[in-house]
Amino acid sequence: MLLSNYSGACCLMGIDILAPLTASHIKPWAAATPSERLMSSNGLLLNALHDRAFDRGLITLDDRYRVVVSSRVSHTPTNNRWLYAFDGRKIALPGKDKST
User: Fold this and answer.
1) pLDDT per position as a tens digit, 20-70
2) pTM for the complete prediction?
């Protein structure tokens, strides 16, 4: 369902190679009810790196669907490139053309 909702691309980077894409739960699996666990509205399609960062609280989304990097993440050249570069960027929303 998430592949269809997000046109087969990561909602953050737009990567459309299936191998690194993963369904990421917005509300953690352990905290969700059985019905919430399977709801597509409780999911994001992210690449493996940003999925893990999201799951670990290193990045999150604000109420406008913009990426927020945790203050726990130090500024290093690598972190700046792969996490802070997306700080403030709005994710692609389900059903939206990824080119817009």
Assistant:
1) 999 988 877 778 788 877 777 878 999 999 999 999 999 999 999 999 999
2) 0.84
Nearest one of 93, 91, 98 to 66, comparing CA atoms:
91
Q: Which residues contact 95 (CB under 8 A, 6 or more apart)?
A: 5
Residue 68, both tokens: 């927020």
Token pair, residue 16, equals 């459309």
**Ramachandran region of residue 7, left (φ > 0), alpha (ψ -120 to 50) or beta?**
left
Residues 6+ apart with CB under 8 A from 50: 10, 12, 13, 59, 86
Spatial separation of the C-alpha atoms in residues 3 and 5, rounded to whole Å: 6
Q: What share of the chain is helix, strand, coil (3-state, %, to 5)?
A: 30, 20, 50
Number of H-type helices and E-type strands within the chain: 4, 4
Give tens-digit pLDDT for 75-85.
Answer: 999 999 999 99
